[in-house]
Amino acid sequence: MDKQVKLLPNKEKLLEQALDICLSKIQAAIAERGQCTIALAGGNTPRPLYESIATQNLPWDKIHVFWGDERYVAPDHPDSNQRMAREAWLDRVPIPPTNIHPMETGAGDPEADASSHDAHLREFFQVPTGEFPSFDLILLGMGGDGHTASLFPYTDALKVSDRLITVGNKDGQPRLTFTVPLINQARGVIFLVAGADKQEALDQVFAEKADNMNYPSRLIQPQGELQWLMTGLTYSPT
Known about the structure:
The protein is α/β, with parallel strands linked by helices and 238 residues long. The chain has 6 helices and 9 strands. The chain has helices at 11-33, 47-53, 81-88, 110-125, 180-184, 199-206; strands spanning 2-8, 36-40, 63-67, 69-71, 137-140, 165-170, 173-178, 188-194, 225-231.
């Protein structure tokens, strides 16, 4: 794993850096493999990034968009990660509908929808059960409790090692989420973290020794490149 940590002076600089990295990764993946697979994060921080990507002149037919997690709500619900990304980016560019791969939430059964999306990913990437595909880029955030995607402290989702998609749990509310081993198979992972309220969790995530189950972001150790882009925080390499 190649780990890099960058402290930026403000959100604007963080988003500029994130845009540069994303564009570079997208272009490199297309040049090397003929397409780019990118998984998006939800939350407020990445929305301006998606709006900026939407203004770029990119080969949209060669970009496939996924989500690292999704709240178990309808796609038009205000809390939907899919809805946010569509409004900020995907509905504003000529990307083929078949290149957009949302986590379906309409079965009324989170486990069934998780299994369905798991099967969809295996079919798309052509990987059998027991193997994990490599996304070109996965974008992640981190909560003040140290969670990432919908991998929350001390939840069963953290222990899932034989599936691509599982059901996360946030205060009794189900979420669909990438599993830890799926994220860790990525060629590149970028954390976008802003705000002093996350300092305590960040210190534990970067500590030499801490409880992985209490700070799930510690579990993210991809086989490719890991980049932390942060603002409003402090960091001292150990």
